[in-house]
């Protein structure tokens, strides 16, 4: 009798776990799916002097010093940064991204070590596939993946443009983290903001309404309440970020800009000749006049600009779009929800409206059952990762994409021979000693070059740290290998290094734990890929 296929979107009920009661536990086990507003005024009655109006924002009001004083940001021009927080303890190493001993990814572990990472003897990286006559390594994206990696399979399902893979490279960081806990300070968004990331509308965005924007917390010493991530998990959240008001619809963008600019000037003139009677008179005046300047700036920059990611042909249904209308449809269940969430975050970050974003995906505590569940969920995560890479290529901008999870898991060697299990080892238990994180870098002009500033070989920069032969993290290999706080610092350091700004790291992170320059060099994956600022593609 055929075994009924389980619905992998059902919540996971593990007998070795307590009943989930916190938000993080509910998200990790799949019981839960895992805003700033700028307003333009409808104040036409205040427009009393048409001679003060101009067709577009005038040069004096576009002055960067004035705009900066009113909190109007053009963005920082840094590399867009997106991280994926796979809640629950997903597999990263071995079955997805290859991991090896001290000599790098291709310094292979023992057969027993790979079995612990879910790979049977005939699928370890060095084993020859009798069908293809090739081994099980895939170097198509620079970073070595297993040839049957579900992450990579998913990414290739979203990448539409030939040649994109040739401009991708990456690094894996073997690093232990706790299983199923809120105490992993994994999230790097605040560190990336401190390193200079900023957007035109927002600084940070995340798909969860949490301090970090995701499931795992951020290092406490890095949290800055001023930049708390704005929750974005659906297209209407993106559209709702900018409201140009009814005036734009009545008059058109140019005339509306002129109206609000005139209101700003008239308001400023009025404020110069009155006293509000309030204690903070000057502050109140600035708030009033800056409010009108912001409204004029919004009308000038965003009227007529399509913000809905589902209406962007570079995201949905265009010839190089990573998603189809069916992918993001409301009736596509959990998959559609995750794809819409990804489309929303990547639209804001890659278009320069936000400096960095976190996409949380729930249900990655997939041990204790068939391997098929992990394969299906990992492939979906890969679809979302690939969508970000394809959209960055469509926009012609670089991207740093970081993937992490709270803890990991291991296999006892039992094989799942179902179609979706693909003949791999079942995930039998949580195992924090097999954890790792990785990041990919897309550069539209050329593949990023592995760091050349020290005497270590390139393989030691593609894999930052290493595993023991038995399939566990060598916790003494690097500072981040046994300290999640330092893993976040390592990610931020690599983000700065892509800009050639790693020399500023000690100034921005004065109490960091990454040691001196020589040690930090050993933790660096790539030579710089940009200099100066990146032009907003929109």
Written overview of the protein:
The chain has two domains: 38-72 and 242-302, no CATH class; 76-240 and 307-334 and 354-377 and 398-433 and 450-479 and 497-522, no CATH class. 29% of the residues lie in helices and 12% in strands. It has 15 helices and 13 strands. The strands form four sheets. A seven-stranded mixed beta sheet has the order 5-13-10-2-9-6-7, with helices on both faces. The protein is of the alpha/beta class.
The quaternary organization reads as single chain
Number of domains: 2
Percent of residues in helical segments?
25-40%
How much is the average pLDDT? 85
**Shape, principal axes of CA atoms:** globular
Summarize, please.
The protein has helices at 23-28, 64-69, 111-116, 150-158, 189-194, 235-239, 245-251, 253-271, 281-302, 333-350, 371-395, 459-462, 484-498, 505-508, 517-522; strands at residues 38-39, 81-86, 137-141, 143-146, 168-174, 204-206, 230-231, 242-243, 356-361, 399-405, 409-416, 424-430, 436-442. It folds into 2 domains: 38-72 and 242-302, no CATH class; 76-240 and 307-334 and 354-377 and 398-433 and 450-479 and 497-522, no CATH class. It is built from 15 helices and 13 strands.
